[in-house]
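ok so heres the complex, two chains, lmk if somethin looks off
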Amino acid sequence: MKIVNKRQLTDNGRTPALRGLRSDALKALEAALEAVDPKRAVLDKLHLSGDWIGVGSKHVHLNDAGKVIVVGGGKAGGPMAEGVEEALGDRVTAGSVNVLRGTESSFRLKRIRLNPASHPIPDEEGVRGVRDMIGLVSALGADDVVICLISGGGSALMPLPSEGVTLGDIQGITAGLLKAGATIGELNSVRKHLSAFKGGQLARACRPARVVSLILSDVVGDPIDTIASGPSAPDPTTFADAVNVLKKYGLFGHLSEGVRGHLAGGMEGSVAETPKADDPLFRDVHNVVVASNLAAAERAAAMAGDLGYNSLLLTTHLEGEARHAGVFLSGLARGVQVNGHPLKLPACLVLGGETTVAVKGDGVGGRNQELALSASMSVGGLTCVIAVLGTDGIDGPTDAAGALADGATTARALEKGLSPGAFLERNDSYSFFKALGDNILTGPTGTNVNDLTLILCGLNRDE
Amino acid sequence: MKIVNKRQLTDNGRTPALRGLRSDALKALEAALEAVDPKRAVLDKLHLSGDWIGVGSKHVHLNDAGKVIVVGGGKAGGPMAEGVEEALGDRVTAGSVNVLRGTESSFRLKRIRLNPASHPIPDEEGVRGVRDMIGLVSALGADDVVICLISGGGSALMPLPSEGVTLGDIQGITAGLLKAGATIGELNSVRKHLSAFKGGQLARACRPARVVSLILSDVVGDPIDTIASGPSAPDPTTFADAVNVLKKYGLFGHLSEGVRGHLAGGMEGSVAETPKADDPLFRDVHNVVVASNLAAAERAAAMAGDLGYNSLLLTTHLEGEARHAGVFLSGLARGVQVNGHPLKLPACLVLGGETTVAVKGDGVGGRNQELALSASMSVGGLTCVIAVLGTDGIDGPTDAAGALADGATTARALEKGLSPGAFLERNDSYSFFKALGDNILTGPTGTNVNDLTLILCGLNRDE
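and the predicted structre for the whole thing:
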């Protein structure tokens, strides 16, 4: 969870004032990453004390005969499983967790099996892993406990098509809805009603065992019914919603026989609806967010405070098109420098969230680097740094996690004959920052709690 | 300076919680407008005390023989002139100020003449007014004082083409540069070098008299060389800059004989360059911003505090495309409601600045109403109000100053069969809020210090 090119990023021919801000920005980002390390997040929340499993402030009783079964999946499944085994030791009976293919052998586990699965397109191995989980939880009793590990990517990594539905059906419908511009809420209502696992159905399969879900949130605002399509959360959507969405986007007429039959069954009541918030089964389900964007942002703000900045966690709900967010954030930076609002210098504003990019050009980039590029174009000359980082370490289809922009970025680019506007125009933010040596490199961090943006503004000590 | 449809805006079938927030938002906006009333702003800064004219913390000596000449122009010229006569009484010798045609008879003035002029397209009457000013200041001595009143719209209201250049030349070039996408800085470098008044040239004409410029800022960040094209401010741009801009946008080849000759003279040195920051003449020039977006935003935040809100002046540098700013601001509102960042409830965030709209549709609207419409689409269900106001009372080509959006706006629109997205798509924000009764109406306020956005979020006392 380190920024691997720290020295290069702070040692790169800038003024001392900007170098200091850059170094501090990286320290605050590293502290934030540390705070949302999945294993550490699990260990912070989960502990065993006598006959009780403590999860944050909640406690679940476990008698000697009670089994502890671990299931779940997501990009952070491996380190979260390590955390559970470290916290509960031999009390773990068995476990099966789906993780990104290629990482299944990277963790030291005694009782929990890691199953390789595919992301973002789900595959049959993922389905096998989920069937394995269902097998483990199906025959449990009221004395038993299921610990469910949920993190980003879990929706694709934990596929289980409903009867009559194929993985291919789900892939086709998902692609069609995305292309037609469906919202994430609309998409989820359909996915949950073509699955036998999502939308609270895992929790139902665990009955009568108690369920503790440990959730590493990769969705802005931490909606537990949305993260990994909410396998242990009540589903606010219905079969009717799913059908309406498919009709709205003109896909209903093109469904396979199997999908059509399944949806018809759901509408008629011969196929069970996903469990709703008033379902008594949720009395024995505890959904606990163990790490989130908020935790990362709070840590970054605290670290900036320790480093001597007036710091403010502005929001964990940064959204919108990356290039426009960049304009907004550069305006904030300018305001801090010009009249000390909302903070006096030296100042650090922390924003969490996740922006989007409507790709139009043929360049290489990601939302975080594009935000940084756009912001850099409006902070020229300011003693400001804007650091943008995807906490998973992967920004778009690049090997960078984000980028560092500052008041000298535009001038340095123009010196090298690079036009920031032209790079932005073709969505080529990665190439832009690579040419300047200003990509932030972490490698995959194993966690994912959305993105962080830090705006640091300082006194110009060089003048 | 009142919101004239206050009762309608707060009495319109919403929940008590939203009604309370709406009412408080309007109170804070009215207080802000009051704080930047041009006459009051002049009276707050300008006073006579014995032989001294005080301007804020600066003082200018005035002996018995010294004349006081008042010149300038802008949309707030009338009330500012009233303020000067009230502050200095009989010490005002004479004055000539250009104002919007039709308002020249609306003010009670004894010694200052108001000249009608045209905006946004300058006209010959405007030129006559400026020549009148030049006549008044040209023969002054070192004992005399010129008080220059500058406010938004002053660039168009105070035209004085350089020798050989016509108003038509300037209009054509301005339109061409705007169409080609020139920045305001580029545009100003050209306008200042085709004028005998802008870019510090008024200050030069006043020599050896002392100059006190009272500036009502309508530009984000209050750059005095930009407001009304800076007639009393050093000009950072040169003839060479102006020529480069004209070449960059392909207009240089199409210039009239007169313009070409004037620019050539400037490049050769036979026509004087605009005065620069190191010109000794500026030792006797005091440029004082008497009211600005910051003053309005500070007052709004203070009023919200008085009304019981945790309040924060977030920035006076809100910029960017209105609809994207709306997305950003709705994210901030959601963050305040969800996790109390940056403020605990009840909360009021104040943002000043000026957004833009790239008009693509054929609807009727303005930047402030479009921002409110866009924001309303993402705050559905929240106990939040987003109030957006142009301080001049005029938002786009409409009779509204802005709009009130809240957590019920989308639901109310859908009930009436109105699709917020469709109205946004065709830039029809005025019609949208008119149908809901949610335009904010003030009439022209006589001031202009950009725009204000307030985000108020409260506890949902209705639940």
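quick notes: The mean pLDDT of chain A is 94. thats all i got rn
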